[in-house]
Amino acid sequence: PFQLQEQKVVKVCLYMALDEIPKEFVSDFTVYFLRDAKERVAEPSDLSEANEVLPKVIKFGLLTDDTLLMLKNAISQKEQPVEYCNIQMRSEIQMSRQKFLSVTQQTTQQTEGNIKLEMPTINLDREVSALATVPEVVEALESYAMTWQKLISTALEEQLKKVPQGDGPLAEINLWRERNDTLSALTEQTKLPEVQKVLAILQEAESEHTGDLQIVLRDLR
What we know:
Layout: E1 30-35, H1 47-57, E2 58-63, H2 67-76, H3 87-111, H4 128-131, H5 135-161, H6 169-190, H7 193-204, H8 210-220
Antiparallel strand pairs: 1-2
């Protein structure tokens, strides 16, 4: 007989990657190293030589999921275009800078969505049809489905209650932009493979808890 077991293990792992950060680690703390020289860096003979030579040719730092925010702040504090630029060039630089700031702000808001769907901790590696026949699995996933339904319903209600902060069309635009950012971030979470598999299992099991969740998912989209 199939027995459901849930186990949590905490361990520290060090992963290394070349040229780019894998998607699954983008939101984690990442230490980066950049070679600041075209020629090959010779291996130091000892620690003293490493401390003296490597900082001159290798730059390093720490990245987090707040990198976009740091970038936005750095650009917004940047000085105005230099005086020797002609008026047209200064205007183009200013417009490009403002457009980039706007895109960065929207991306930051989407990635910092404060509504997180809790993902199942049980093993879902088996086929949907097989998992749908295990009462313990179905019961556990129904609990997640009810939690998701409540979270999404609350988010929708809160967004509908919000009113423009100020008068005029700009306040209205900001309201709709904030609403879109929040709900878009939540929508992207519902598209995750884990969520889709939970829905498939519950539908296969003909669970009565999928109806309300499907309704709020349609409202969200």
